[in-house]
Amino acid sequence: MNTTANANAMTAILRQISLDWNRTISYGRSYLAIFFAYAPGFTCLMAATGSTLDSVAGAVIGGAASGFLMLNITLFSYEQMNNHHWMNGIVPINRNHQILGRFAFLIVCDLVAGLEVAVSIACASIIMHEPVKVTDAIGFAAMTVLTLVLLNTIVQPFLYRFSPYRAMAAIILSIGVIVGTVIGLRKALPEFEKTVEQLAEAISRHQAIALAAFLIIDVLALAFSSKISLHIYGSKDI
After folding, report:
1. Global pTM?
2. 179-211, pLDDT tens digit by residue?
3. How far apart are CA 112 and CA 104, in angstroms?
4. How many angstroms from the chain centroid is the CA of residue 38?
5. What is the rounded CA–CA span in Å between residue 46 and residue 54?
């Protein structure tokens, strides 16, 4: 009985992943090709015009993170703009499996983003004739994936609670509050900036431990976000 239930749950989650994939490619395969080629192309352009490898790495990580985060918002926007959200009420997938399937699809996309970062940095190092350690490239890729997973877990309840546009406004407002808090702490606490620098240095020295701690935070955030999302989504009329 449990085996059958697990198989049915897995089938439902895979259906949701397939549905999200169809939503993603609804704008056309050329759009998808440009989306995936943007970060490596921009990285190679930066490398060819004399940028340092550190600046290239920072740019590609930031670009991949923002681009793939927008992919999440695009899925919800597509549902709203095309009046596609009504399908969520008739497809044979319960709301819990819809949420789990959406998270699974996003995690796969996050892994692709990490791979894209690693490839982009490798291409930039070849153009700039600067060797990059494999461990460094893997570290950059892992940090990209873990950051994206955490960001998606944070924004997901907003996207289930509000329309994509209102969710974006709430997210931007939250970012503004966080930035304002950091600025306030820097002014109020003279040692704050020094503490942050020491923390960053400690993370760079113990990268494996930092990534493991980040992974634990992501797992906890996923569990919490999925419960909150299900509570919000489950109370809505479809």
Report:
1. 0.78
2. 777 677 677 767 766 776 666 677 667 777 888
3. 13
4. 17
5. 11
